[in-house]
């Protein structure tokens, strides 16, 4: 009976499973080829310092220029790259590329790079960062690493030790997507972040929900008292910007300032400002 049932279950699920597994496998294979054939590129999105109204830096965002599918967004392939471990060599490429580009910019603004929790588990992330900085001859104080709660969720002493080591070099550590996870406050106590990026969900709600404004105010006050700065993500309207200024946010980033741009567009944004 179990066998018959098993066969039914098998028959019922197999086609869908097959598609999922095959898609994943084909994407994985594609990723390997893409890395070897340099189909990846970085887009750079500026963040603005609200006290000076000048660009304080650019976040590097990976793009995949797929030969058939066109530009693929990281949301579509970063999770598969993480599952397959491909994020380790890809993340290393992103770091080296971002440092290399930033070293050539006409102003010594910062460059932010997103790190995956997987890069902390496998591989020598601090050695990779140090090598990328050396190779590019980039001042470590110009590099900012964005991590999500997932990194600290792994909760091992080695993760914290790595973060402290990097911070000791002068590299800045930012908490990305703040407010989207479960115990964000605990994480702020676990590590002395330099910057907190307020998730764009709160920014989007600023004009429609009074509680979003209260939350943003509370976060900037908290960050202030912990010696951290704040960057609001996903700022799209002048109204949101006004609220964020008023709340004492340090920096803003979003389509209102600029969409992510190709590397060639970075220098012109920095010249004459
Ligand atoms: P993130 O680090 O939170 O990056 C912000 C995302 O929001 C980017 O999407 C950016 O293009 C988008 N965005 C910026 N301003 C606005 C706005 O005003 N409105 C809206 N609606 N969206 C805005 P993107 O480039 O698709 O990246 C998505 C996520 O993929 C990133 O979220 C980050 O978690 C991940 N990611 C990107 N590049 C890398 C990378 O090199 N390594 C790793 N591990 N993850 C990456
Ligand atoms: Mg980020
Ligand atoms: Mg973010
Ligand atoms: Mg986000």
Automatic annotation (TrEMBL):
Superkingdom of the source species: Bacteria
Domain EAL: 24-273
Protein name, UniProt field: GGDEF domain-containing protein
Taxonomic source organism: Methylobacterium frigidaeris
């Amino acid at each position: 009976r179990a066998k018959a049932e098993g066969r039914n279950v098998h028959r019922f699920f197999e086609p869908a499973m097959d598609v999922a597994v095959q898609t994943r496998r084909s994407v994985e294979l594609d990723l390997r080829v893409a890395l070897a054939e340099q189909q990846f590129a970085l887009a750079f999105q500026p963040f603005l310092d609200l006290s000076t109204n000048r660009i304080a830096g650019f976040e590097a965002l990976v793009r995949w220029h797929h030969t058939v599918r066109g530009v693929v967004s990281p949301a579509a392939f970063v999770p598969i790259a993480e599952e397959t471990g491909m994020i380790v060599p890809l993340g290393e490429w992103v770091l080296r590329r971002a440092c290399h580009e930033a070293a050539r910019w006409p102003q010594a603004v910062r460059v932010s790079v997103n790190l995956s929790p997987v890069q902390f588990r496998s591989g020598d992330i601090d050695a990779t960062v140090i090598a990328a900085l050396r190779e590019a001859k980039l001042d470590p104080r110009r590099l900012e690493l964005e991590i999500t709660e997932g990194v600290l969720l792994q909760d091992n002493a080695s993760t914290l030790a790595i973060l402290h080591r990097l911070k000791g070099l002068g590299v800045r550590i930012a908490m990305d997507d703040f407010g989207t996870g479960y115990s964000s406050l605990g994480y702020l106590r676990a590590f002395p972040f330099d910057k907190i990026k307020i998730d764009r969900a709160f920014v989007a709600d600023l004009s429609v929900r009074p509680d979003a404004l209260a939350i943003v105010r509370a976060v900037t006050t908290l960050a202030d008292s912990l010696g951290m700065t704040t960057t609001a993500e996903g700022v799209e309207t002048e109204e949101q910007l006004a609220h964020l200024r008023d709340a004492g946010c340090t920096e803003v980033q979003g389509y209102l300032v600029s969409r992510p741009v190709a590397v060639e567009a970075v220098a012109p944004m920095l010249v004459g400002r």
